[in-house]
Amino acid sequence: MDIFDLVWNVQQQAKLGELETEVHFAKGDAQAAAQSVLMNIVVPLEQRVDRLALVTRAMWALIRENTQLTETDLVKRITEIDAMDGAVDGKVLKPPMQCPKCDSMVCRQFRRCLFCGYEDETANPFDAV
Predict the structure, then answer these.
(1) Using CA atoms, how far apart are residues 27 and 105, in angstroms rounded to an integer?
(2) Sign of CA dihedral 48, 50, 55, 57
């Protein structure tokens, strides 16, 4: 082995060490980012779903206690509403609407055109939930 091979090997080892350090920090950054997503997005979303489930159960209990409606009636109505978008899949998907002001496609979830600011005041309030 000559001096050039030795120098090359030392340089390669140094580069490998640098890469290992970068991987270590990148792994830490990825873990921190995942933790941030968990705490800032997933946990609040789970809390919101829990609150919605609680409110829904309370509403159904009140309706059942004060009317002649049954669980069968509820399931039938859920299925009807689920089928409104053309598929019984447990989702209520609505196609985007065309903005009457600028003709852009607008997601019904937002109820406001992101391009021109038009807001549909008569929109169904459940579209934004």
Answers:
(1) 40
(2) positive
In angstroms, the CA 7 to CA 15 distance is 12
Can you point out the beta strands (E) in the chain? 97-98, 105-106
pLDDT of residue 51: 93
d(CA 8, CA 16): 12
**Structure confidence by residue, pLDDT tens digits, 30-71:** 888 888 888 888 888 899 999 999 999 999 999 999 999 999
Handedness of CA 108, 113, 114, 115 (dihedral sign): positive
Q: Which residue has the higher pLDDT, 128 or 90?
A: 90
The whole-model pTM stands at 0.50
Question: What is the torsion angle, in degrees rounded to the nearest 10, for the CA atoms of residue 66, residue 70, residue 74 and residue 76?
Answer: -140
